[in-house]
């Protein structure tokens, strides 16, 4: 033990290391390779993310400019309609938004035209409608008049100055041609101010109104019409109203390329009546048919048409010499005239007769084709104003 303690302790020297110059050289080489790796990987990615130069588009096509201008000019005339149902639940009153649709400004007085089915749930009271203009101002509207047989209705907003209202330009539908361009503006699915385009697909279609009566001379179009478009305008390429979008034909309930619009000629005839009286009044003819009795007699006579069951005294029909049906004292029946056509259109029911009369106005002269005493003849009848 003593010997070990007296001996000097020897430490093993460290192994010889690289020189400082070599270390510095390795570090420089490593940094250089890292920089090159960074450039090859990261710089190439960032270059790919740089924005490419934009290719000049040039001017829009003439038809594109026309469509843009058409929408700009007419969208201020299109409105969004919401119906509100009011009710009471125990002790509290409530309001619930029930439906929505489209419409358009008819005049500077604040009248708005839409479909009857859009506001049908408030037509009998218990609610009201709001109208949202293109600038998103919303006003409460009052119901002015309805024409369920034509799926048309008129609302009115009272608090908007005339200077802020832009009525839609009116066109005509009697000279439309299959294939001409059309434009539908509305609020499909609540998406306001939506434009869709298409063509007139067919003319003279017949669709049922909510009452079941046929709406005639309807325009068929492939412009996309979806729920919410109802009541909105169908425009021609001049930006004029040619129809009111009213229905689609689709198993799924969405656009399938078959939409229908009430023609503007019908709208322009019905709306003034709604503004004046709140309802559609047909001119007075003075023939009162009874469908079931008429069908029994015409079957016996083996003719098609509508029997003049009663002809009212001093009526236009009476003055024109139309004969009514007579029952003799002994119970025998002497058939009156059978009305077969009105202005060239076949008539077999009272509904058809009334629908054709509603297309005319007091003072108009109509041509009746009648069957009398085994012969067909034509009689001119001048219509009177409606009688209450």
Briefly summarize what is shown:
The protein has 388 residues and is α+β, with helices and mostly antiparallel strands. The protein is 23% helix and 33% strand.
Write the layout of secondary structure elements.
Layout: H1 2-6, H2 20-49, H3 62-74, E1 78-89, E2 92-105, E3 111-114, H4 116-119, E4 127-132, E5 138-147, E6 152-156, E7 181-186, E8 194-208, E9 214-221, E10 233-235, E11 241-248, E12 259-263, H5 264-277, E13 287-288, H6 291-301, E14 306-307, E15 310-311, H7 316-319, E16 326-327, E17 333-334, E18 338-342, E19 345-346, H8 350-357, E20 365-372, E21 375-382
Antiparallel strand pairs: 1-2, 1-4, 2-3, 3-6, 4-5, 5-6, 7-8, 7-10, 8-9, 9-12, 10-11, 11-12, 13-15, 14-18, 16-17, 18-19, 18-20, 20-21
3D structure, described in words:
The protein has 388 residues and is of the alpha+beta class. Helices cover 23% and strands 33% of the residues. The strands form five sheets. A six-stranded antiparallel β-barrel has the order 1-2-3-6-5-4. A six-stranded antiparallel β-barrel has the order 7-8-9-12-11-10. The chain is elongated, with a radius of gyration of 39 Å. The N terminus is likely disordered.
């Amino acid at each position: 033990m003593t010997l070990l303690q007296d001996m000097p302790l020897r430490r093993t020297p460290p192994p010889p290391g690289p020189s400082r110059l070599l270390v510095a050289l390795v570090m420089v080489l490593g940094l250089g390779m890292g920089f090159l790796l960074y450039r090859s990987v990261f710089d190439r990615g960032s270059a790919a993310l740089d924005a490419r130069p934009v290719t000049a588009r040039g001017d829009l096509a003439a038809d594109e400019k026309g469509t843009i201008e058409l929408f700009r000019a007419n969208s201020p005339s299109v409105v969004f309609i919401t119906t509100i149902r009011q009710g009471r639940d125990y002790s509290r009153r409530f309001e619930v938004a029930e439906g929505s649709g489209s419409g358009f400004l008819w005049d500077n007085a604040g009248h708005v035209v839409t479909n009857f089915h859009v506001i049908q749930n408030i037509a009998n009271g218990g609610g009201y409608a709001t109208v949202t203009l293109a600038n998103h101002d919303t006003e409460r509207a009052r119901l002015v008049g309805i024409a369920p047989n034509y799926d048309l209705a008129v609302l009115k907003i009272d608090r908007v100055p005339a200077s802020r209202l832009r009525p839609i330009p009116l066109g005509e539908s009697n000279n439309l041609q299959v294939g001409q361009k059309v434009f539908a503006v509305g609020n499909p699915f609540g998406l306001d101010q939506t434009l869709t385009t298409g063509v007139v697909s067919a003319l003279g279609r017949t669709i049922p109104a909510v009452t079941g009566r046929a709406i005639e001379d309807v325009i068929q179009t492939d412009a996309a019409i979806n729920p919410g478009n109802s009541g909105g305008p169908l425009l021609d390429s001049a930006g004029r109203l040619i129809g009111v979008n009213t229905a689609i034909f689709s198993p799924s309930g969405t656009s399938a390329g078959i939409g229908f619009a009430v023609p503007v000629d019908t709208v322009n005839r019905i709306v003034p009546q709604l503004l004046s009286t709140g309802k559609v009044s047909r001119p007075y003819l003075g023939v009162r048919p009874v469908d079931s009795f008429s069908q029994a007699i015409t079957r016996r006579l083996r003719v098609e048409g509508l029997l003049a069951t009663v002809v009212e005294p001093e009526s236009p029909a009476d003055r024109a010499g139309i004969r009514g049906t007579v029952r003799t004292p002994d119970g025998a029946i002497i058939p009156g005239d059978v009305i077969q056509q009105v202005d060239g259109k076949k008539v077999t029911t009272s509904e058809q007769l009334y629908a054709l009369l509603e297309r005319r106005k007091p003072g108009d002269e109509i041509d009746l084709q009648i069957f009398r005493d085994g012969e067909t003849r034509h009689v001119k009848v001048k219509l009177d104003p409606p009688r209450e």
